[in-house]
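This part of the workshop introduces the protein records we will be handling. Getting from the letters to the tokens is the skill we practise here. An example says more than a description, so a record of this kind follows:
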Amino acid sequence: MQLAVKLCLALLTVSLIFQLLAIISTPISSISLSTSQDFKYGVFGYCNTNLHKCSSRKIGYSPELAPRPTPSNKSPLLPSGLKYNVTKLLVVHPLSFTITMTLYALIFLMCHQPIANSPVFLLSVALFSLPTFLLCLLSFLVDVLIFSAHLSWTGWLMLPATIIIAICCSLPVSY
């Protein structure tokens, strides 16, 4: 196996781990993409840390499902003050993870000599790497848009994941 392919597989593994941490955020685990007031936000919902209640696990937040700790705070405000419909853009996280996993499998197939010698296959992998990079970048930008200054370390991990994919996709992996 060529050194560039091994390096690319290692880099994509790190990128997949960073993306997975964002996906398994609140309410699936105690990791959060953002923390604001008494709420922790994740890709599939949010949790009230005082009441220990979480929204249902789905893409996009609903204010109707919000725990109501006090009459003055009827629903959690998003850290950036955006409408709840914008949170449906968080769907790019699982899509980015899936596309990156597919790119990982394609690059893993490059370990086999007959496949790696095919110019059509190499071109396909090279062309597939562009949407992979763009979706990962979009995931990071959506996090910044929705959570702005309240972005936690998990959300910031999407930036190195994007950079890693850009590096991996620019490596010369042909034999």
Remarks:
- Confidence is low (pLDDT under 50) at residues 67-71.
- Residues 119-147 form the longest helix (29 residues).
